[in-house]
Amino acid sequence: MTYFTIIMLAFALSVDACVVSFSYGLVYEKNRFKNALLISCCTGFFQGIMPFFGYYLTGFVKNLIQPYSRIIIFSIFVYLGIKFIIEAFSEHKKEKLCIDLKCLLMIGIATSIDAFSAGISLALYGNNILKPAILIGLITLINSNIGFVIGSKLKSIPTRILEVSAGLLLIILGIKAIFV
Predict the structure, then answer these.
(1) Exposure of 91 by Cβ count < 10 A (0-12 exposed, 13-18 middle, 19+ buried)?
(2) Which of 114, 124, 121 is nearest to 11 (CA)?
(3) Within the chain, where are the H helices?
(4) Can you give the residue range of the structural domain that contains 109?
(5) What total of structural domains would you count in the chain?
(6) What whole-number distance in Å separates Cα of residue 70 and Cα of residue 113?
(7) How far apart are CA 33 and CA 162, in angstroms?
(8) pLDDT tens sequence across 112-171
C-alpha cells in the first residue's frame, strides 16, 4: 500500500472520531481546550493502536488467507464503506455526552474498530505496521481536534456528507485492492 493510499485510509478512518468530536464541540461550552485535547488524544491513540492488533492477529493465520488476500481486503473496505454510508443516513439517538475516563475509553474503542480491520488489510498487503499506524493515529488526532473546534464554532453542519465521503473513499480503496 502506498503512503498516499495509507493517508487516504487514515482520513476515512478518522471520520468517526471527527464526527464524535464535532458532537462534543457542539455541546461543551466550558473547558473546550481540555475537552478537545482529551477526545483528540483518546481517539488518536486508539486509532493508532488498533491496527497493531489487527496486523499481528492476522500474522497467525496469514499463510491460510494469503491466497484470498485481495478478496478479503476488498470485502473489508467495501463493508466498512457501506457501513459508513448506512450510518450516515440512520437516525442517531440524542444522548447526553459524558467525558469521564469510562466514556473516553468507550469512544476510543468504538471509533477505532474499523482501524482494527485496516490493520488486517495492511498485513495482507505486506506493509510494515509502524508508520501506517502512526499516520492513522496522528491524522485521527488532528481531525478529531478539528471536528471539536468546528463543532464549538458552528451549531449545525451536515456531518452526513463527511460520513458518505469516507464510505465512498473506503469502497474506492477496496476496488483498488482488487486491481492493483
Answers:
(1) exposed
(2) 114
(3) 3-27, 32-65, 69-89, 101-110, 113-125, 130-153, 159-179
(4) 3-90+98-179
(5) 1
(6) 21
(7) 23
(8) 888 998 899 888 888 899 999 999 999 999 999 999 998 888 765 566 777 788 778 778
Amino acid at 127: N
Q: Do you know the residue count of the chain?
A: 180
Residue 61 one-letter amino acid: V
Q: In whole angstroms, what is the distance from residue 81 CA to residue 98 CA? A: 28
Name residue 11's amino acid.
F
Q: What is the DSSP string of 35-61?
A: HHHHHHHHHHHHHHHHHHHHHHHHHHH
CA-based nearest residue to 173, from 109, 107, 124, 110 = 124
Tell the residue number behind the cell numbers 464526527, with chain if given.
Answer: 19
